[in-house]
Amino acid sequence: MSKGMLIDTTRCIGCRACQTACKSWNNLPGVKTTFSETWSNPRYLSAADFTRIIFREDVHADGTVGWHFIKRQCMHCNDPACVSACPVGALQKLDSGPVVYDDSKCIGCRYCMMACPFQIPKFQWDSAVPYIRKCTFCADRQAVGLEPACSTTCPTGALLFGDRDKLLAEALNRIRQFPARYHNEVYGEKIAGGTAKLYLTAHSFEVLGLNHRGFRTDLGDTPQGVYGREWMGKVPLVALGVGGLTLGLYALNRRRAEVAAAEAEARHQEKEV
Amino acid sequence: MAEKVEKWYAGEPRGKISYGRMILYILTTLGVISALIRLFFGLGSPITNLSDAYPWGLWISFDVLTGVALAGGGFTMSAIIYVFNLKKFEPLLRPAKISAFLGYLMFIFGLFFDLGLPWRIWHPLIMWNPHSVLFEVAWCVMLYTTVLAIDVIIMALERFQIEGPVRFLRSIYVIFIVAGIILSTLHQSSLGALYLLLPEKMSELWATKAIGPLFFASAVIGGLSVVTLESLISAWAYNRKPEMSILSELAKFLGVALLVYFAMKVTDLYARRVTFFALDWQHLLLYVELFGTVFLPALLLTFREVRASVTGLYWCAGLAAFGVALNRFNVSLTSYGGYREFSYFPSAIEFFITIGLIAGGVLLFDFLTQNLPVYQEELIGHAESTS
Predict the structure, then answer these.
(1) Contact B42 A105 (CB under 8 A)
(2) What percent of chain B has pLDDT over 90?
(3) In which band, very low, low, confident or very high, does the pLDDT at A212 lie, cut at 50, 70 and 90?
(4) Which of A14, B78, B83, B377 is an S-S bond match for A69, by CB 3.0 to 4.6 Å?
């Protein structure tokens, strides 16, 4: 059974305990941060920050300010583009849900970073021996029957870990029960072929202004790895076609030259006779 | 017959580019120093300006994508001569193979320094992901570089008059011809297919399902134009007469290739209903690419006077080659900038490594053409061995 995580952003209070738990479990180094125009900290995901809470302010009609707290991390796609892209198979989708990365295979080509529609894989730029880093869905914890660090630590139940099917049913149920509270779509249900992480939000990601900050809404339901796999499916045919054509024409040319040479020879002999 | 072995004499010693050679040595040295710095200090700032927002930069756009497209001369000439049986172009074959071989060597070195873990560059040999377009590119490039290396080895064996192995290689030469054309068709188009996975990150002007065939067609243009330029430039550098009769003939092929590519591009843009008329810098780049470097040289090449003049050929082949490079940069870099709040411009070290690679490539070309039987008038038997 494939695991998933329901992220009900309307229940998040922005405490960032998940960020801390993630750092702690994955033993990630601290990163120097600076003030900025946003409450979000750190500003971007990086090889040392697998998850972060994006803070969005929302000014209501009556002048009061509302908040949205959106957790960002690897979506753990059902059919991940990074897994299709990786030339050496360093990235794998486990049947249990997580998309995991094998340090010992990676060559550092960074095609996964280019391919990921959610811009998740990050690179250890500061190292002379750099690897790709991203949220692992705590595959190591899951393997021993534990929940991911972030959902374990979440104090409000905004992060629910469980079977993806059940969580999806729960999410749809919540929308049905509280239509005023939720935007009428579970982000991650179908996008890019569906993801293990399922989002409930108060507004669409366009309204939240995050559709170009990691939550693309224009991806469609086709997993993008399909395009690469379709291409690879045609490769043997193209190889055979081009090969056959080339060989055929080459053989034809050769035969023509032989015939021409034989005819010339025959003419030459006729003359001599 | 196919097993013919070329005889060769060294020709007169060459002069003229010794000043140039000096500059090339300096640039190559700078490149080597930069490459060592990159190896020991990694890819992060300030060594390169690559970042999580721009994982691929100058090296992928130029050393890999542009380099491979412009090194398409090897398989293009091989197809013209062996498959389409146009033997009059044979004098261009050996120089084209040398420059293709060097192009691929430069590409492999460029990729080597771009990889985060370059000492694992061999991993695709044993770690397979047959779903990955990049996996296929890796294999095709490895195999095709081997094919090109065999061509260079044949020339080296001829140089040292070791005839036995040459006869053997010539007797199975058809394998290399066919393999070279298959492998080139596959990886030239697959380099474009790499971008099938990320349409949402690219400008709609270049994000197309047809990118594979488009890359292939423009690689033919890259190959033909570089063969032309290379022939003109080496004639100038080595005080030789450019082989204008053949080059003007080849220019017809270049013109046709440009026209076909132009038609493909326009059809693609039309079929996808993209906004063609707009005044932003991406559209300007598209106009330059489409009209300045594809249509213009195609138009110019329809004139016999242009095809017959050295200047005309310099311009047309130069524009066409520049157009291929511009297309690769547009696909991989400029079309990528549209929606991100980050920007990217290559660092000094990125430039030095790329320039060093080019300079080193030119020096090696100079060395190889001087020491191997490459140019027709140096071959005592003349006529390339074929059927």
Answers:
(1) no
(2) 77
(3) confident
(4) A14
Domain count along chain B:
1
Nearest to A75 by CA among A7, A132, A140, A126: A7
Distance from C-alpha of B243 to C-alpha of B230, rounded to nearest angstrom: 12
For residues A107 and B298, what is the distance between their CA atoms, to the nearest angstrom?
41
CA distance A114 to chain B (A): 7
Q: With both helix axes pointing from N to C terminus, report the angle between B173-193 and A225-272 in degrees, rounded to the nearest 10.
A: 150
Q: How confident is the model at residue A222 (pLDDT cuts 50, 70, 90)?
A: very high
B214: DSSP letter: H
Does residue B8 sit within a domain?
no
Give bridge partners of residue A46 from the DSSP assignment. A49
Q: What is the pLDDT of residue B12?
A: 55
CA angle A191, A84, A99 (to 5 degrees): 70
- Whole-model pTM? 0.92
Minimal Cβ distance to B83: which of A46, A126, A249: A249
Q: Which of A107, A219, A256 to mutate to test the interface with B (most CBs of B within 10 A)?
A: A107
Q: How far is B192 from chain A (nearest CA, A)?
A: 11
Which CATH number is associated with domain A3-81+115-223? 3.30.70.20
The Cα B149–Cα B165 span in angstroms is 14
Q: What is the CATH number of the domain that holds B341?
A: 1.20.1630.10
